[in-house]
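Researcher: Structure for this, please.
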Amino acid sequence: MLSLAALVMMASFQPSQAQTQKIRISLSSRSNTNAPYYVAQARGIFRDEGLEVEFIQINPRLGAMAVLNGDVTFTTSFVSTFRGVVQGLPMKTVFILLKKGLYYLMVRPEIIKDIQELKGKKLGVTAINGGDHIIGRELLRMKGVDPNSVQAIAVGDPSLRFQAVVTGIVQAVSVPPPYDVQLQNLGLKAISGPPEIGVPSSGLFAADRVIKENPQILRRTIRALLKANRFLEANREETLRIMAQYVPQKLELAARSYDIEFKALAKDGTMTDAEIEGQMERLADKKRPLDEIRDFSFARAALKELEAGK
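Model: Predicted structure, token format:
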């Protein structure tokens, strides 16, 4: 007959608990582009997949190193990580959330009345050659301004860029929703809108080591994100509440982001080879074989499982 202590010990090692794995996911900023991650956390989708997830905010340029060092399991920052992978980092793009991030070039109209006046001025960005910097250069170019005539200043995440332009440290910032509307409410003006061609604003990158040695954790994470995408698409009002919980904002601002940003949601979590090639040409100085920079096999397998009701 088993003792009470033995029964307690057995109960503490039930399969559902034994299979739970702790992972860390690095986010470059607290923004609406991360909504699928917030939904997966708030709705218990990660937990249902046997994952205990902790979000860590890390400068996008350091996200890849954090993954390779084992400090985090995955990073979501696309531009800097993708560029590093093309240059030879032992990592791969394994999932895409948003194929195109939306940004607006914001200025104080009493200082900058015409976009040509930005020549010789300062543009606040998260990091030099980061996603918002590259898109900011596109926003300048599409209005006929040579991007090299505007000095980029690395300021930090959207909230810091917000403060930098309000206080006059920089004369313009490239920001995603809802920061553009919040700045408009303070009297600032969008002097250039979203470009037709953008770069993915959120994805998932894993070290080759994790892909080889722990494929289950990758499969579970991607299944959770695909489920979150489906929930987000089908449950607008609940998604808005979750967005407002994770990124302090009014519901109407969350609704605007939902309606304009999630048109770019990659519902299957992948990009075509042509799209990957295009990003490689835009973001990197060299090329690398596609099989060395992307692996969407887990996303495709997880999608088949979900469609089959598994």
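Researcher: Any notable elements?
Model: The chain has 15 helices and ten strands. The mean pLDDT is 88.
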